[in-house]
Amino acid sequence: MEQTAISPGHYLNSDINRLTGKTRLLSLDTFRGLTVAAMILVNNPGDWGHIYAPLEHAHWHGWTPTDLIFPFFLFIVGVSISYALQDKTRDGLVGKIVKRSLILFSLGLFLNLFPKFDFATVRIPGVLPRIALVYLASSLIYLRTTTRTQGWLMGSLLIGYWLLMSFVPVPDFGPANLEPATNLGAWLDRTVLGGHLWKTSKTWDPEGLLSTLPAIATGLSGILAGTLLRSTRPEAEKAVWLFVAGCLSLLGSYVWSGFFPINKSLWTSSFVLLTSGLALQALALCYWLIDVRGYRNWTKPFVAFGVNAITVFFLSGLIPRILNLIRVPQPDGSDIGAKEWMYQTFFVPYFESPYNASLAGALTFVLIWFVILYWMYQKKIIIKV
């Protein structure tokens, strides 16, 4: 990781500013910050057994607000690529892309290994590894293709994935299907990765190999949105086109879901159109409010999350695991992790509903990170990956 410095005030002087030598968009950093804050919230409940339904993933087919968070982030990765790599002729770009992808993948693998470092059963897929693969593929596609080709590739990935999942027989099982353990993607994960899958399922992985293809399409949808934002069209017109594209994507999702259901774990093509459509509309709203209308004073807290997104995601996953290594003795002679002790001591006694206690624990965790990140932002500290 590399540390650099910015001036927070620069964000509020114009809609596109220079930050760490790259062009950044205030509305995009705000959208990213909102997404990361939501990611921390849903990943850190006080009690995994008591979570309000909107803060949980859909069991299988269908979706909840929580299912939007990860694809929103991949969409934002795509938008960022179109800004960061707009000078396609710069020397050494491919090497830098590969290096960053390897760092992201390694950070994800480290999280999966910590604290036992059991290489025999470590989960290889995961959120950061998927971000790494999507970033790598989307960046290389962006460097080597035109906007028209990127659109065709996105469509081809979605249609090709649908054909594979819906019509290709599953070896050692039979007809194509979309069930958790018997679909083509699950078979491929077991065949290639063996025992290195999500420990909750063991037979399939929500960030598996085959579903990375439509996830790349999510990244490409962000690249196309970023290309529109960098165009010379009037700002208000760009916001309208983003919103219209979101509406068309949602319509396509509705039609496609009739025979290829919306499913986050499978990252179905209809799920890509749904989440990209909603991300387009959310970005259009942020862009219109912040960059077109100039309502910027409220953005600083979210920008603080947005400019250190990978850092806070990594540490928010690592620190609770470190806390659980600290054991606190209990009256009955047993012991619990420090994180669980803090939750049982400072939250459970003060809430009648365990769901409210769990939510309060999650919100407090987000608030603690806000204080840390806002301090970093004020001190002009960004940790680049």
Describe this structure in words.
It is a single chain. The protein is mostly helical and 385 residues long. The chain has 2 domains: 1-56 and 296-385, no CATH class; 59-294, no CATH class. The protein contains 13 helices and 6 strands. It has helices at 26-43, 69-84, 93-113, 127-144, 147-167, 184-193, 212-229, 235-256, 269-292, 300-306, 309-325, 338-346, 354-378, and strands at 2-4, 16-19, 22-25, 327-329, 335-337, 382-384. The strands form 3 sheets. The protein has a two-stranded antiparallel sheet. The protein has a two-stranded antiparallel ribbon with strand order 2-3. Strand 4 and strand 5 form a beta hairpin. Helix 10 crosses helix 13 (354-378). It is globular. InterPro entries: HGSNAT_cat. GO terms for molecular function: acyltransferase activity. It comes from Larkinella arboricola. Keywords: Acyltransferase, Membrane, Transferase, Transmembrane, Transmembrane helix.
